[in-house]
Q: What sequence folds into this?
């Protein structure tokens, strides 16, 4: 009984991705997903419907004798799903049961056609995950046909066999569907699990309202909570809810995910508080690629040359005290960093001596992409890096002179570090073995939209 949630469940496990809360995220599962779910769900549904039929007890002479019955095969040639506005989903399927009856004088094989209709209600559960429940289930059986042209079975026995099989399947089919939906709800419950974001930090999603269900899609509001060392990161409350326009993104895709700027603000705040955006850039002596040493700096600042007659390596300690600022305009995402850079030199006794510190402003272009279940980013510098001296222990500093040395050597390590961090990705709501595929990312004023296909990997 582990099959149907791979089909019907594939649609529903994606629902938790949406929100009008402080970190608004909105996901819509569109009608295009239903045909894929129907195709994927046929084989698991066939396995689920292959239930055990108890023997038929009938009178032979003066004794009650059992006749063994076995379902040899189940084929589901048709499976269709559609949305029920304001309620959930309707499943419609046809199935053919191949059944063997071990009767005397010879076994009998039958094909029993069935039409199944089931309505599933989708709601928000008590632990803030989607909960699915079967409200109606109606199997309808047609007359069975005898295979192999066998006609030695008595008409009365054939009638009794069909009546027995239909009575058993009428109960077992719906019970099986209900059990599978319960298995699905257990799987849906894993959506509130923690996913790593970076060192000592995690993200967790939860459904914050009842689903919105129309003839075209199912959507849920989901809140993303980020944790640092087990404690939630709290943003100032936003008065405006995040509303995702309809339609938006690519027409005809299976899933549309809307991510508000509030979510990105929270992620960047988390990374900044965790210190994940900080880095050290270390110089090496006798390196043409990295001339971060007192000799190179001394040619620009005489006091450095005086204090360090022998070349010593420099270290740039980059610290982001201010939270990065992300801005979304149509077709354009930018990231503004304002790191504090302290320039230190290694002295002869291996201690660090602070030479001067800089306040830096750098604007970055941000490109977003989706890989399986993660949203990833890559940045590049926009324009020039601006430097301003914050403090100096080596006298007057001409910013224009040190700009090339410090700015150039600072830029590549910063980008490498930031892109490595953003390349790890932020987990989107999902469950095991379910992935976003062929995804496109669109940037709009104040939010991001992911238009994606779905893929379930067995």
A:
């Amino acid at each position: 009984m582990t099959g149907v949630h791979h089909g019907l469940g594939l649609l529903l496990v994606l629902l938790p991705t949406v929100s009008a809360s402080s970190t608004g995220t909105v996901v819509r599962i569109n009608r295009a997903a239903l045909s894929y779910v129907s195709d994927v769900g046929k084989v698991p549904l066939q396995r689920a419907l292959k239930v055990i039929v108890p023997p038929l007890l009938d009178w032979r002479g003066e004794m009650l004798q059992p006749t063994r019955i076995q379902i040899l095969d189940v084929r589901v040639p048709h499976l269709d799903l559609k949305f029920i506005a304001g309620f959930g989903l309707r499943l419609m399927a046809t199935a053919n049961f191949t059944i063997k009856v071990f009767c005397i004088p010879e076994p009998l094989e039958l094909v029993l056609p069935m039409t199944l209709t089931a309505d599933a209600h989708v709601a928000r559960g008590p632990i803030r995950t989607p909960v699915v429940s079967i409200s109606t289930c109606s199997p309808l059986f047609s007359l069975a046909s005898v295979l192999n042209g066998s006609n030695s079975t008595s008409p009365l026995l054939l009638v009794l066999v069909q009546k027995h099989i239909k009575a058993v399947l009428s109960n077992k089919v719906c019970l099986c569907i209900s059990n599978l939906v319960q298995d699905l709800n257990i799987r849906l419950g894993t959506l509130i699990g923690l996913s790593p974001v970076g060192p000592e930090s995690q993200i967790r999603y939860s459904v914050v309202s009842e689903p919105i269900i129309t003839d075209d899609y199912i959507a849920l509001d989901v809140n993303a909570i980020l944790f640092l060392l087990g404690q939630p990161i709290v943003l100032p409350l936003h008065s405006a809810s995040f509303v995702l326009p309809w339609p938006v993104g690519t027409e005809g895709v299976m899933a549309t995910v809307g991510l508000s700027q509030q979510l990105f603000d929270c992620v960047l705040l988390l990374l900044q508080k965790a210190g994940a955006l900080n880095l050290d850039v270390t110089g090496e002596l006798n390196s043409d690629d990295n001339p971060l040493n007192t000799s190179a700096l001394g040619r620009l600042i005489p006091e450095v040359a005086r204090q360090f007659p022998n070349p010593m390596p420099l270290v740039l300690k980059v610290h982001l005290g201010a939270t990065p600022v992300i801005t979304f305009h149509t077709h354009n995402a930018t990231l503004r960093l304002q790191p504090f850079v302290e320039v230190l030199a290694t002295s002869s006794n291996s201690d660090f001596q602070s030479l001067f510190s800089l306040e830096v402003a750098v604007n970055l272009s941000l490109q977003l992409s989706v890989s399986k279940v993660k949203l990833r980013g890559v940045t590049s510098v926009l324009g020039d890096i601006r430097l301003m001296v914050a403090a100096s222990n080596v006298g007057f500093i001409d910013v224009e002179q040190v700009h090339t040395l410090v700015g150039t050597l600072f830029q590549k390590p910063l980008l490498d570090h930031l892109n490595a961090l953003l390349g790890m990705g932020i987990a989107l709501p999902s469950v095991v073995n379910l992935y976003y595929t062929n995804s496109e990312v669109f940037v709009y004023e104040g939010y991001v939209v992911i238009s994606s296909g779905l893929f379930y990997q067995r």
About this structure: Residues 22 and 236 are 8 Å apart (CA to CA). The longest strand covers residues 63-84. DSSP finds seven helices and 23 strands in the chain. Confidence is low (pLDDT under 50) at residues 1-5, 7-21.
